[in-house]
TrEMBL record:
This is Glucose/Sorbosone dehydrogenase domain-containing protein. Residues 1-24 form the signal peptide. Residues 32-338 form the Glucose/Sorbosone dehydrogenase domain. Pfam families: GSDH. Keywords: Signal.
Length: 384
């Protein structure tokens, strides 16, 4: 598998250097609406299907016949709902614990986002079928569920939560600290139940109906569709899907403090979106964290939708180190963000040799990447 990774990485390197077409090759197929890929610290990849199934993809491209986990009977799937996130505990090799983010089937109109803990069985390729619910919160509309979960270097679980949908955040939820919607959440799952990290911005909240939620780590997000940590410095990169005009890429500096406000719905990108409800923010845009990069929508139908990726920290190509790779779902392109110094970044797009709706980047233990396509619902494309 490494030779395939290497040759395809070289193709991408050539493309980015000389504006040629990015060449991608299919590595595996047979998946239905895949939305997440991750690894458990070994050579296996775990592919999350939206309907509630997690499959194991082996290093030779084969897929295990028996799913790692099937919770489709308790998942409400469709549109932007479903099984959306998977994260293995930092001590997974000894604890066997992993965590999932899914939409339950408690209601067809206002179901719950659920964060639950599961464990692997005595068979390393099959999980125990029942888990423990740690956190749940209601979704008022069918879209903007977020869904990504991942562990930071601090050992805490981070959760991407969309604004609850409805278009234009009609409930002003992203700026409302009494709700978990439109936020990045951070919780400590090392115990039986979850607890609140002391460095969360509202960690001392009384947590009453009108009090800030202590789980909040950052706010002012519309629909963060994937985030990742830069393993070199702990920076948190957040790709936030825009409303009408802009897609944005945000960064939480690893050495910074919690509580950043990314501005939605008062701002879309760095431009004013709304002056109603909780807007304008006191102090204006100076009291928000503006995007590291943003790009405008093009056209009227599916004009822009970002899929977050990773900062490259591999060793094969030093010139790629520090670049942030992402994808554009609507434009079906691959984006690269390059640090040009003084906190400035340049943005470039490349069109691959195949047109797909890219929904997810994944990272292998070799720090190489693969790209997941949702249409035609079956393909894993090897990229780096």
């Amino acid at each position: 598998m490494k030779s395939l990774f290497t040759s395809l990485f070289a193709a991408l390197f050539s493309a980015l250097s000389f504006s040629q077409t990015v060449n991608l090759a299919t590595f595996a197929s047979g998946f239905t609406t895949p939305v997440e890929i991750t690894n458990a610290g070994d050579n296996r990849l775990f592919v999350v299907e939206q309907a509630g199934i997690i499959k194991i993809l082996n290093s030779d491209g084969s897929v295990n016949a028996t799913p790692f986990l099937d919770i489709s009977s308790i998942v409400g799937s469709g549109g932007e709902r479903g099984l959306l996130g998977l994260a293995f505990a930092p001590d997974y090799s000894t604890s066997g614990r992993f965590y999932i983010n899914y939409t339950d089937n408690s209601s067809t109109s206002t179901p719950n986002t659920v964060i639950a803990r599961y464990t692997v069985s005595s068979n390393p390729d099959v999980a125990n079928s029942t888990g423990t619910i740690l956190l749940s919160y209601q979704q008022p509309f069918s879209n903007h569920n977020g869904g990504k979960i991942a562990f930071g270097a601090d050992g805490f679980l981070y959760i991407a939560s969309g604004d609850g949908g409805g278009g234009g955040d009609p409930g002003d939820r992203a700026q409302d600290t009494t709700t978990l919607l439109g936020k990045i959440l951070r919780i400590d799952v090392s115990g039986i139940n979850y607890s609140i990290p002391s460095t969360n911005p509202f960690s001392n909240s009384a947590n009453g109906p009108s009090d800030p939620r202590p789980e909040i780590y950052a706010l002012g997000l519309r629909n963060p569709w994937k985030f990742s940590f830069d393993k070199a410095n702990g920076d948190l990169w957040i790709a936030d899907v825009g409303q009408n005009t802009f897609e944005e890429i945000n960064k939480v500096v690893g050495s910074g403090t919690a509580g950043d406000n990314y501005g939605w719905k008062c701002y879309e990108g760095s431009s004013v979106f709304s002056t109603n409800g909780n807007c304008p923010i006191p102090g204006g845009i100076s009291n928000t964290v503006t995007p590291v990069a943003e790009y405008a929508h093009v056209g009227s139908s599916c004009s822009g939708s970002i899929t977050g990726g990773y900062v490259y920290r591999g060793s094969l190509y030093p010139s790629f180190v520090g670049k942030y790779f992402f994808a554009e779902f609507c434009k079906q392109t691959i984006g690269v963000l390059t640090d040009t110094g003084n906190n400035n970044w340049s943005l470039a797009f490349q069109t691959p040799n195949t047109t797909q709706r890219w929904t997810r980047w994944g990272k292998t233990t070799m720090v190489n990447y693969i790209l997941l396509a949702v249409q035609p619902f079956i393909k894993l494309k090897m990229l780096i």
